[in-house]
Amino acid sequence: MDVSTSSAEVKENRNIGNLEDHSIGSAECQSLFCSDSARSGSSGLKRKRPLEEDNNGHMCQLRFIYKKLSWSEAPKNALVQLNELRPGLQYRMVSQTGPVHAPVFSIAVEVNGLTFEGTGPTKKKAKMRAAELALKSFIQFPNAPQAHLAMGNISNPSADFTSDQADFPDTLFKEFESSPCSDGLSFCNSAAESELLSSELLRHGRLLRHTLDLMVQAQQRLGGIVPEPEVPKSPVALLNELRPGLRYACLSERAEGRRLRSFVMAVRVDGRIFEGCGRSKKLAKTQAAQCALQALFNIRTAPEGRTRGDCVFQDFADSIFHLVREKYRSLVGGCSPAHARHKSLAGIVMTRDLDLRHAQVVALSTGTKCINGEYLSDQGQVVNDCHAEVTARRALLRFLYAQLELFLSKRPEDWDESIFVRHKECSYRLRDNVHFHMYVSTSPCGDGRLNSPYEITTDLHSSRHLMRKHRSHLRTKIESGEGTVPVRCRGPVQTWDGVLQGEQLITMSCTDKITRWNVLGLQGALLSHFVEPVYLHSLTVGSLRHTGHLGRVLNQRQERLGPLATTYRRNQPLLSGLSCADYQQAGKASCVSVNWTLGDAQLEVVNTATGRRRDSGTPSRLCKHTLFTRWNRLNRKVRSDLCYLQPLSFLMYSEAKMAARPYQTVKQQWFRSLQETGLGTWVKKPPEQEQFLLSI
What is the Cα–Cα distance from 239 to 289, expressed in whole angstroms? Predict the structure, then answer.
C-alpha cells in the first residue's frame, strides 16, 4: 500500500540531527502541508516520489518527529493540573458584575486553607484564573526565566535569578488557554488533520522555536559572539503578546483647527476598560496599553527619550498618586455616594528622604468651588475657598500644629517622633530628611491649566492671541462656579458691604496660590512666628496636565523677585504627571468638600456654598477661627519672645498675622514683583473678615 511505502521511505530519510542545523520556515511548512493534503485528498492522484536528503527533507520529517518528542503531548491546563494535585476541590460562584452584554464573573476555590478568586468574562475563564492563582501559590519552576521564555512570554533583562519568585507570575499559565493560531500560517489539509496539527504542532511550534533560539544564543556565547541587543517592544506589542486579539475603539475625536487634535482610544482587557488620550490614535493606543499593563501585569514602560533619572521620578510620582488614592478610598467607605464622588482630589504625602516604605498621607481633600459672598463671616468661621489644593494645604496646617505640640510636650520620647527640631530660641524647623509631596488629580485652576490639551475651546488663531496677551497672568475664580478669568489691570478693591449687596466675591486661582506657597511657604503667617518656611518638594498632576507650561508659570513669576529674607527662598518643586492619566469623573461638580488630616477618625464634609459643616452648620475645623484658637494655645508655650504682641485677651487675628514681620516683608516684595512684570495685582478679601478677636 502507498501508506506503508511512504512510512518506510520516511523512516529511511529520518535524520534527527537536522533539527540543530536547519531553521523552520513558515512558507516551507505551508507548502509541505498543502502537498500532504493533495496526497490524501484524492485517491486518483499518483503517489509522490520519496523525499531525498538534500531536498529540504527535514521539513517533512518534522511532522513525524513530533510524535516521539515529549513536547507532542497536549499540555494540561491549570484546572486539570490542580485537580491532579488536589482532587475533589469545590469551586463556588462569588459574584457577577458588569452589564448584561459584558458580564464579569468571579469564582473562588479553597486550596491549602487559602482562598483564591479569579475573574473573567465567562465562568470557565474565571474558574481557570482561580486555578492558575492556586497553582502559583505552591508551584515554582526551578528555571522560571527559561520557562517563561519558552512559553512565549516577555523576558526581563534585569531579572534577579536568585529570587525565590517567578519573574512573571501573572503570565505563567498563559499558554494553558486555548487560542487561535497567531503565527500567520494557513494550511490546506483536511479538517481532521488540521485539528490534529493545531492541537499539537501549532501549540509547540513557538516552544521549539524559542528552544532553538536558546541553543543558538548559547553557541554564540561559547564562541565569543555577542548578540545584538533587542529593540524594546512598544506597550501595544507587549499587551498583544499577553492578551492577543485585543481590539481598540476610538471613543472620541476632537479637532480644534487643523493642527490641534486629540483622540481617545479604549481597550477591554479581562473585563476592564482602559482609556488613553493623545494627539494621534497611535499615541492614544499606546497610553491605553500602558494603563492596562500597569494595572493588570504591573509592567511599566518608559516613554521614548526619557532618561533613567526621569523614569525613577516617574515611578515615585505614580507611587504618590497610589498612596493618596488608596487612602481616600479607605476613608470614603462609609460615606454616601454623593460625598464620595469628586472631580478634584488633592493630597499631601510626607516622606523621610525619598523612601516610600515609610511614606504617610498626612492631608487630603476634595472640592472645586468657593463660598457665596452672602455667607462671608466677620468672625472667621467659614472656609472661603473649598478647592481641593487649598483645603489640602489647610489640612496640612493642622498636622503641623500637632507636630509642634508633640515637640513641646514634656515627654522626651515625643521629641523624637516630631518632625520638628529646635533651630534657635523659640524657633523650629523641619528635620533635614522630611519632605512633603502634593498630588492633584487635575491641573490647578488658573494659568497652569490654560495650555492643557483638554481645555482649548477656541479656534487656533484666537487661542494663540489669548495666550500671548495673558500668559502667566494672575487669574481669579468665579463665585459659585468653575473656571477662572484674568484680573483687571489695577485690581479691584473688595469691600464688605459691596459683597453683601451682591458684588461678586473674588478669589485668586489655585495656580496663583501655589506660586505664592513656593515663595512664602505652606505654613502661612501665623505658624511663621515659630517655624521656618515649609515648602513642597514635588507636585504631581493627574489629568488635564501640561507640566511644561505649569513649570514655566511657576518660574516666570519668580524672575524679578530679588534677594529674599533669611530662611526664605525661591522654591521650585519637582513637577510630574502620571504614566497613566488619572480617571476624571464626568458630570456636574459636587457642592461639598471633604477634608482629612492624619489623626482624624473620619472625614469632615463642608458645604462649599456656605463654608460650614454640611451636617450641623457649625464652623469647619479648617476655618480661620479654629486654626487661630489652636495657634493661641501654642503661643502660650513659646510667647516669651513675642513681646511685641498685645495681651492674649485682646489679640486680633489680623494683628497676629501682621506681627510676623519677615513673612509680611517677603509677601509685599512678591506682590510688587508681580506688578512690575505686568502679571497683575493680587486681589485681597475685605479686611473686615480678619478683624475678629478670640473669646477667652
Answer: 6
604 a catalytic residue: no
Cβ contacts of 387 within 8 Å, gap of 6 or more: 344, 367, 368, 369, 370, 445, 477, 510
Q: What's 505's DSSP letter? A: P
Angle, CA of 60, 64 and 65, to the nearest 5°: 100
Residue in the block written with cell 523659640:
426
Q: Shortest CA distance to 529 belongs to which of 408, 640, 403? A: 640
More confident of the two residues 361 and 410: 361
Q: Which of 175, 200, 275, 389 is catalytic?
A: 389
| Alpha-carbon gap, residue 334 to 684, rounded angstroms | 38
SS3 content of the chain, % helix, strand, coil (to 5): 40, 15, 40
CA atoms of 320 and 536, how far apart (whole Å): 13
Do 246 and 337 lie in one domain? The reply is no
Q: Is the pLDDT of residue 313 over 80?
A: no
Domain of residue 424 covers 321-690
Residue 124 has pLDDT above 50, yes or no: yes
In this predicted structure, the answer to whether residue 24 has a pLDDT above a threshold of 80 is: no
Distance CA 334, CA 336 (A): 7
CA dihedral 589, 590, 593, 595 (to 10 degrees): -90
pLDDT band at 211 (very low <50, low <70, confident <90, very high): low
Which residue is listed with cell 490542580?
Answer: 82
Q: Which residue has the cell 468638600?
A: 593
Q: Which of 579, 694, 485 is nearest to 291 (CA)?
A: 579
Give the tens place of pLDDT for each residue, 316-360.
888 899 999 999 989 987 676 666 677 889 999 999 988 888 899
Task: Tell me the three state secondary structure of residue 278.
Answer: strand
Please tell me whether residue 394 adopts helix, strand or coil conformation.
helix
Q: Is 507 exposed, middle or buried (0-12, 13-18, 19+ CB in 10 A)?
A: buried
Query: Is residue 612's pLDDT more than 70?
Result: yes
Is there a single domain that holds both residue 565 and residue 666?
yes
Bridge-based pairing state of the strands 427-430 and 574-576: unpaired
Classify each residue of 659-680 as buried b or exposed e, where b means 16 or more C-beta atoms within 10 Å of its C-beta: bbeebeebbebbeebbeebebb
As a whole number of angstroms, the distance between CA 280 and CA 262 comes to 6
Over residues 619-634, the mean pLDDT reads 93
Residue that is last in its domain, among 192, 222, 252: 222
Number of domains in the chain: 3
Name all contacts of 398-402 with Cβ < 8 Å and 24+ positions apart: 398/363, 398/597, 398/621, 398/622, 398/627, 398/630, 399/362, 399/363, 399/597, 399/598, 399/599, 400/523, 400/527, 400/531, 400/534, 401/527, 401/627, 401/630, 401/631, 401/634, 402/597, 402/598, 402/599
Query: Which three cell numbers, joined as nine digits, stand for 405?
Result: 505640640
Compute the distance between CA of residue 63 and CA of residue 247 in angstroms, rounded to an integer.
34
Taking alpha carbons only, the member of 383, 381, 379 closest to residue 371 is 383
Please tell me whether residues 474 and 620 are part of one structural domain. yes
348: enclosing H helix or E strand: strand 345-352
Mean pLDDT of the chain: 74
Q: Find where cell 509677601 sits.
A: 667
Residue 456 makes CB contacts below 8 A (sequence gap 6+) with 256, 260, 463
Calpha distance 693→573 (Å, rounded): 36
Which three-class secondary structure string do you get for 303-317?
CCCCCHHHHHHHHHH
> By the 8 A CB rule, do 140 and 291 touch?
no
The answer to whether 163 touches 199, Cβ cutoff 8 Å, is no
Residue 154 placed within a domain:
no
Residue 384: pLDDT over 80: yes
The answer to whether residue 229 sits within a structural domain is: no
Pair (431, 536) in one structural domain: yes
Question: Residues, the chain, total?
Answer: 696
